[in-house]
Structure formats: structure tokens, C-alpha cells
């Protein structure tokens, strides 16, 4: 018995819509299985209307989930229940047609495979959620209007970590399974010139007041944006640790011993760089660390975004890769707390779900760093 006719206006020919992703076919197979055998909805777990990639599919699944299931014998003889599903679905997706419901039923290979189809839909939804959370982190990092950028960025990182933990609960990661996606190259911060200037002020101030170096032990050479500045900071910390004299000349000599003058760095330029102290070592050190933290958050967000954008990565790989990336941010977060004396609120983390190897959660890395 054919479905009840519907008006032709405002209809989309869903049969001609190209499938941009394999999950579109999976969603069609799942919906077709449920339309053909509505009782199989009880075997489908882990998905909701929001798990689907199109509004039409989401509306159909919502209708199937909310309408009382039909009597199997009656459903085999008439289309009453299918008409009800179509009417309910049209309330949220007016372009749905009776012919599209027929298409869904016809393209379903095996209705008994509905749980497997649901698992695939859930996996793709997890990828979209992770990618959206990474994009939100990146937007926060680059929002120049934030009054407290570090706190806001770390709060957004916690939101991203919560998404990772939820995916891990649904798809426990296997030990040692890393994403195959190559990480994106480091990006250049838009305020690169300002960063270079502040690093020069830090180096000059630390040279003039080496006693202040002890108070910024949380600052590492990797926090600097330029290799020369990173090398000069290593020179300063080494001289201070050895209790040797610190001034522009001694730093220049240490730089020569480390090979820092071999690549377009003239001695006079280094002396000039170290000769204009301003402010305090703590102030410029905190500024440098803040910039490094935001740059790390940017790299973490772009790395996770790249992982989630690669369809070759399984949910297991996404969880492992995301957690390892977030661990990098957790390490510098701990150093920021030491620098500012502020313990920023952080959500509790569940126990690691990997079956072997060291913990990979951000909380675990942070705990080790604080010890």
C-alpha cells in the first residue's frame, strides 16, 4: 500500500542529494532498518537525533524514537505508522517526502545490522563533536577582546577535555594506538614583533638583575619565540646556576661557546640586545609564559582539529591523540600556576581508560609535573 500522497510544494528531492561522506549512507541504512523493523529501535544505543549529519535524518530519527511502535503484523500490511513518521518528521524538515522514506527502506542491506550502523553513526558524531570543540578552543585563543585570556582558554580546554572523556567512555582507547595524521606545522602568532620585543626586554632585564632569574624557574627556553632568545636564556640560567658573573659580556661569551653566533648573529647585536633593561624579570617572564601558553593551546587545538578532520582515524585513535595533545597544555598550565600563584579551577578527570601503558589524561600529566 503506498504512502499517503503529499503536496508537491516546498519538497526537496532527497534522492538526488549527493552523499558527501560515507556516514550519509550509514545513516540511510540505519533509518531504513528502523522504518522497516521499528522493533529494532530497542537494539540501537548511543545515538540520538543530534547524532545525525542532516536535519532530515535527525527529524526522522526523532519521529521514530518518539512515536509508539506499530504492531508488527499491522505494520507488514499497511503504511499507517510510516505516514505518522512522515508527518512528525515534516514538522522539523518540511522537505521530507514519502519517496525518500521508500528509498531509505530499499537501500538498507540488512535490518538486523541496525546496531552496527548505529555504532558507525555514533563514531562519526564523536568526530564532529571533537572537531567542533577544537574549533571553539582555537576561536578562544585568537579572541583579542578577552579580559582574562589564560583563564578563558584553559576553561575552553577543559570543555574540550570533557568531550574527549565522553568519547573515551563510549569508545575506550586501545593502548598505543595513535592517529596517523601528521600534526600541522606551528603557526606564527600575529603579535610576533611584540613577542620578540618583550623577550628582548626580559633578557636585558635578567642580565642587569640576575638575582631575579631564580624567581622565574618556571620559564623554559621553549617558551621563547626565537631560537636566539631561547639560547640566550639558556646562557643566563646556566651562568646563574654556576654562580658565575652575569653581564652582557659574560653572556656573549657563553653564547659563543654554545654556537649561537654562528648563524647571522653579530656580537655587537647581542650586546645591544642585552643592554636595555626595563621593569622586572618576573613581569616579562610572566608575559613570555602567557604567550607560550596561548601558543601551546593554539597548537593543541589545531592538532586535535587535524586528527578529527581525518576520516581514517578511529574514535580510539582520536581519544589517544587528543589526550596526548592536551597533556602538553596541562604541563604548561602547571607552570603558569607556579608563576602566578593562582590555582585555576579544573574539572575532575576520570580514571584512564587505556588498558596498558602510563596514564594519558591531562590530570595525570599535571600530577606528575607537580610532584
User: DSSP helix count?
Assistant: 14
C-alpha Rg (nearest Å): 29 Å
Describe the largest sheet: none
Instruction: Give me the secondary-structure category.
Output: mainly alpha
User: What's the pLDDT, averaged over the residues?
Assistant: 86
What is the count of β-strands? 0
Distance between the termini: 72 Å
> Secondary-structure element order, as H and E?
HHHHHHHHHHHHHH
Low-pLDDT ranges: 7-11, 351-371
Identify the overall geometry. Answer: rod-shaped
Report helical residue fraction. 55-70%
DSSP strand content: under 5%
Please provide a written account of the structure.
The chain has 371 residues and is mainly α. The chain has helices at 22-36, 55-66, 72-77, 80-90, 98-107, 114-141, 149-170, 192-208, 227-241, 248-257, 267-273, 281-308, 315-340, 362-370. The N and C termini lie far apart (72 Å). The model is unreliable at 7-11 and 351-371 (pLDDT under 50).
Which properties best describe this structure?
mainly alpha, rod-shaped
What's the quick description here?
The chain contains 14 helices and no strands. The chain has helices at residues 22-36, 55-66, 72-77, 80-90, 98-107, 114-141, 149-170, 192-208, 227-241, 248-257, 267-273, 281-308, 315-340, 362-370.
